[in-house]
């Protein structure tokens, strides 16, 4: 079972002190919410998602959905990110990550002159 393997990986990261207990709980909640047939109970740890939507004038579509809890964990494993030939230190992204964890709703919306559209939001 894939979900059982993912749960064990989360618990192993917790045991190795790569993530905090709170981060482990968030990840486990995200796994439960993503499970087929999962029922969300009112007031019970609703998973939050960082969503990126890109629509190009040429018809290209990109959709990225990341559980916010994954962002918390990712900063423990990445030291830098390379984007279009530019290296960004993860330490420099701490403020952005903290804002993303607390934010809700649309964070960024860009419409280019060529008709390309980008949205980044948390829900």
Detailed description of the structure:
The chain has 123 residues and is of the alpha+beta class. It folds into two domains: 1-38, no CATH class; 48-123, no CATH class. Helix content is 36%, strand content 28%. The chain is built from four helices and six strands; from the N terminus they run ααββαββαββ. The chain has helices at 2-15, 21-34, 68-74, 94-102; strands at residues 49-55, 61-67, 80-83, 86-89, 105-111, 117-122. The strands form two sheets. It has a four-stranded antiparallel β-sheet. It has a two-stranded antiparallel ribbon with strand order 3-4. A hairpin with a 2-residue loop joins β3 and β4 (86-89). The chain starts with a helix and ends with a strand. The model is unreliable at 38-44 (pLDDT under 50).
Helix-and-strand structural type: alpha+beta
Counted by DSSP, the helix tally is 4
Rg of Cα set:
17 Å
Strand order of the largest sheet: 2-1-6-5
Shape: globular
Main beta sheet: strand number and arrangement? Answer: 4 strands, antiparallel
Q: Ranges with pLDDT <50 over ≥5 residues?
A: 38-44
Mean pLDDT: 75
Portion of residues in beta strands equals: 25-35%
Give helix % range: 25-40%
N-C termini distance: 28 Å
Please tell me the total number of domains.
Answer: 2
């Amino acid at each position: 079972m894939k979900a059982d393997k993912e749960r064990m990986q989360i618990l192993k990261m917790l045991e190795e002190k790569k993530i905090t207990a709170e981060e482990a709980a968030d990840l486990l909640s995200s796994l439960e919410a993503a499970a087929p047939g999962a029922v969300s109970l009112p007031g019970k740890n609703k998973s939050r998602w960082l969503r990126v939507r890109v629509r190009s004038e040429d018809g290209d579509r990109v959709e990225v959905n990341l559980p916010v809890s994954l962002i918390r964990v990712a900063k423990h494993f990445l030291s830098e990110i390379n984007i279009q030939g530019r290296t960004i230190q993860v330490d420099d992204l701490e403020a952005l990550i903290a804002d993303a964890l607390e934010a809700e709703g649309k964070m960024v919306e860009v419409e280019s002159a060529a008709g390309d559209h980008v949205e980044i939001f948390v829900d």
